[in-house]
Design brief:
The chain is of the alpha/beta class. Helix content is about 40%, strand content about 20%. Strand 7 (about 145-150), helix 6 and strand 8 form a beta-alpha-beta unit. The chain binds N-(iminomethyl)-L-glutamic acid and fe (iii) ion.
Length: about 425
């Protein structure tokens, strides 16, 4: 049965329509509709426009009319295109050691680092992991994030990676957010694997990849390209196989040293994420490619490192998304809106560029075409903020949270 709903009037509706996928975006390029309405048909947007005009349509369609009183700003539902929220345990000790001046090596020798989370995550049952993902996804959802990418990568064996990806799949059944799973079996060479990097990746691609397809667990393959993880020479054949099987490619690139973004460009990856160490050369090749650059300010804040050169990427004509990287090691905060706002202040991004980074440019980083903008036929995923201007959202640096979150045409979170 077709069900129509009209919501409004909205002081401002920021639709992101007609905004370019790449390059500089000025605040005055945003399409902002005043006294707006949003007419929903089941899960999708039927129309947006002037509230009074839509009201006539709504009456003709016998729509439910949800009338609002006071100031509301409506944005598309936010998209967090890079997280590692499927994990167990904590790495608070790593954080303390790092801030006390200990090196990466000293922390690893004390039993910290990614391997520590692998050990803790392997101990957890699938149900516990699924519960953790559900809980964290709901935390993000309350802040207006209606689509969340979630990586595996703390299993690092076929069985343990499957456990993680099935836990993510189960969590996706119960949370109102959409979870987009990514296989990050290429996170590091597991310490207990008897063989070298190449043998491990061959094993994963020949054994795990077919099961991902069979069980529909993920259509995205990620790898961490870094001295401490995998080199480009290891990853090229791994990604070739993934592509031949129809997977989308995404890369942890240029976090501490360069090399990853070159692989992303050569392999026509959907996105290259991190890029804190990218130089003008990497910025140039990324900007000339179709790859979406994903800044992860949460990792810079967690590690006390430089931010991704977001301004330079946009000025060069690149496409920039912004994601939280929420993980127990480098990015424990898990607050996309705060982090994106802070990246804006340090990198001198316009509010339009920050908003684009967590809406339609983030959708592109996940190769999703049905969300990130508010227009007819897009998913009815949107946030209502109790304020009179969208500038307030970034100005309050994450402290202004949506008073209503709508997902696929239904209200899924409301603050009174
Ligand atoms: O995106 N860089 C590699 N992976 C994660 C960190 C994972 C961890 O420390 O547990 C990241 O920052
Ligand atoms: Fe990451």
């Amino acid at each position: 049965m077709i069900k129509y709903k009209l919501i409004g009037p909205l002081t401002q509706l920021v639709s992101m329509e007609n905004c370019a996928i790449r390059g500089i975006l000025k605040d005055n390029e945003l399409s902002v509709i005043k006294n707006a309405g949003i007419l929903i048909e089941n899960e999708h947007i039927f129309a947006i426009g002037d509230f009074n005009d839509l009201k006539e349509k709504a009456v003709a369609l016998d729509a439910e009319i949800i009338e609002l009183y006071g100031d509301y700003v409506c944005t598309p539902g936010f998209i967090d295109a890079h997280t590692h929220i499927c994990f167990s345990g904590t790495r608070a000790r790593d954080y303390a050691m790092r801030n006390a001046g200990k090196s990466y090596l000293e922390i690893a020798e004390a039993g910290g680092g990614i391997w520590d989370t692998v050990m803790q995550t392997r101990k957890a049952e699938k149900e516990e992991l699924s519960h953790n993902v559900h809980k964290r996804a709901n935390t993000l959802l309350k802040n207006g994030i209606t689509t969340i990418e979630v990586k595996s990568g703390y299993g690092l064996s076929v069985a343990e990676e499957l456990k993680m990806l099935r836990a993510i799949q189960n969590a996706n059944q119960v949370t109102d957010a959409d979870l987009i799973a990514t296989c990050l079996a290429g996170h590091m060479l597991p310490r207990d694997f008897e063989g070298d990097h190449k043998t491990y990746l061959d094993h994963i691609s020949s054994t795990l990849f077919p099961i991902l397809k069979e069980e529909n667990l993920s259509n995205r393959i990620d790898a961490f390209i870094e001295q401490s993880a995998f080199l480009p020479s290891h990853i090229y054949p791994y990604f070739e196989k993934a592509k031949a099987m129809g997977f989308d490619i995404t890369v942890h690139a240029d976090q501490f040293s360069t090399g990853g973004s070159e692989v992303a460009v050569q392999m026509n990856a959907i996105s290259a994420d991190h890029l804190e160490a990218s130089t003008d050369h990497e910025i140039k090749i990324l900007a000339k490619s179709n790859v979406i650059a994903v800044a992860l300010p949460g990792a810079s804040l967690g590690l006390g490192c430089d931010f991704t050169p977001a301004r330079k990427i946009l000025d060069a004509g690149g496409a920039l998304a912004i994601a939280s990287d929420w993980n127990p090691g480098s990015a424990p905060m898990g607050d996309l809106l705060t982090q994106a706002s802070i990246l804006g202040t340090f990198e001198k991004l316009t509010n339009a560029e920050v908003l684009a980074g967590i809406t339609f440019r983030a959708a592109a980083a996940l190769n999703l075409k049905d969300r990130g903008k508010l227009s007819s036929n897009m998913l009815a995923d949107f946030n209502l903020f109790q304020t009179d201007h969208f500038n307030e959202i970034f100005y309050q640096q994450g402290k202004l949270v949506p008073s209503q979150v709508w997902k696929k045409g239904n209200i899924v979170y409301s603050r009174s």
